[in-house]
Amino acid sequence: MKKKIFYKVVLFILMGNIMFAAGTETNQNTSLEQVKSSITKAKEKIEDNIDKAENTIKAKKGKIDKFISKLKGKSWKLVWDDEFNGDNLDSTKWAYWENGNPWNAGNYVDENGKLVNQYGFDAKHYYLRDNVKVENGNMVITLKKENAKKVNVNGTERKILYSSGAIHTRNLYNVKYGKIEMRAAMPKGIGTWPAFWLWPEGYSQSDGKPAIGEIDIVETDGGEMNRVTGTVHVLRSDNTYESFEGSDYKISKWSKEKLTHFNTYAVEWDDKEIKWLFNNKVYKRFTYKELEKKGLENPFNQPYFIMINVALSKKTGEDGDVDFPTEMKVDYVRVYQKK
After folding, report:
1. Same structural domain for residues 53 and 111?
2. Domain shared by 193 and 54, yes or no
3. What are the beta bridge partners of residue 249?
4. Which of 5, 228, 278, 327 is the most buried (most CB within 10 A)?
5. Structure pTM?
6. Residues contacting residue 124 through CB under 8 Å, at least 6 positions apart
């Protein structure tokens, strides 16, 4: 940054000198075009130096980050991942969220124009596999506003308001303990609700009751792009949830960390606690002793499967709340186990 400011000052002084020289040379019949050409060449040279300086800084920062990652990585072994480097979703690792697997795909509008809340939360989206793409090294979920889109619900064509996408590893991959990490860029706009989360192995709506536990590795609210949330939910005997939310990660307005840029989101989960990390920084811990205090059984001692989705909550109101279409981009998902 200091180098960039320095070069801009140099550019300002140099351009001033050129203009001064131009004034002198004008008396010697130097054309205005020659003056402009000199200024342009000087500007290009300085900007080239600025770019070189920035690339040098980025290269040094990259080496430091790589070194830190290498040190931290000595205690972890990569056991499962998807780098999304192909052209299609890998069906040996992921399934689309559809046909009740693992849950209803979303909400639709009935013949009276009323939103049917089969998904829950009065959400306004409906998941479609066409809204999930793998391209340019990312898995991309696109959230769209629909005008006359219809889907088949139990044999009847139903109108939907917004389409989105979701994927999961149910019946394909489960993890018990370890570090589960995603690198992703989040969508923004009031009501956009991307999530990276876990449900117990094999669970689906066909079980006829809520999941006994849920680990939310990350959720973000597109209307509050300075906050990263991670939590766990535990089912009580009355089929309602006890939520352990703790403190969110707060991003200052001066921070270089932007949720629309790529960041890493992870949990480190073992037989004693769960820790949440944002860009490798631990910001929250949950120990199972908190369950004992509430008289709850521990549901986090069994395998869970992975889910990624972008929902649209009922918060979305006016068309200007979200610049549709908007996207969540996932660079990779990785699972590590202790060595």
Report:
1. no
2. no
3. 228
4. 228
5. 0.79
6. 107, 115, 161, 162, 191, 312, 313, 314, 316
